């Protein structure tokens, strides 16, 4: 994948960075931890401007958040609540749970988007709850842009500083991403088991 990313940037320049970062948000297996350090290395060679690398990475990342945001927006809280009340029993999920989650996102969503855009493993997925909770698009874009700019700048500068060893960034970040995803899976499993037990207790009573 490293060669493909490098070849695309070599042939398309800044537009290649933008396109790759859009794809990274829609298809997370294409990691920004490879894209931006590689672009930073290109800037270190003098082939690109570091400022433009960060700008195009940020722009591509923000554009890439929009498909999932609009999917979440189209689905919406009301439809999700109705679905959960009708079909969510096997997931121990109710409309009330959805409303609680939506209320949480309404309260902390801006911070979740801002900091979540810098967290591997969940940065792409935050667009869905943002859309479902109907976070205003300008607000979503502003916080996404700030978080994406910080993330893109950190990765690009790391590639710039490491030079030919820019691929070490992905080696360091990838385990962190796996740990975060693992913790999310464990947390979801624990919540599922707890709700099953609670349902069993209510039924037994």
Automatic annotation (TrEMBL):
The chain crosses the membrane at residues 12-30, 50-71, 140-160, 172-193. Keywords: Cell membrane, Membrane, Transmembrane, Transmembrane helix. One of its GO terms (cellular component) is plasma membrane. Residues 30-160 form the VTT domain. It is found in: Cell membrane. It is a multi-pass membrane protein. Coiled coil: none annotated. InterPro entries: DedA_domain, VTT_dom. Its main location: membrane. This is DedA family protein.
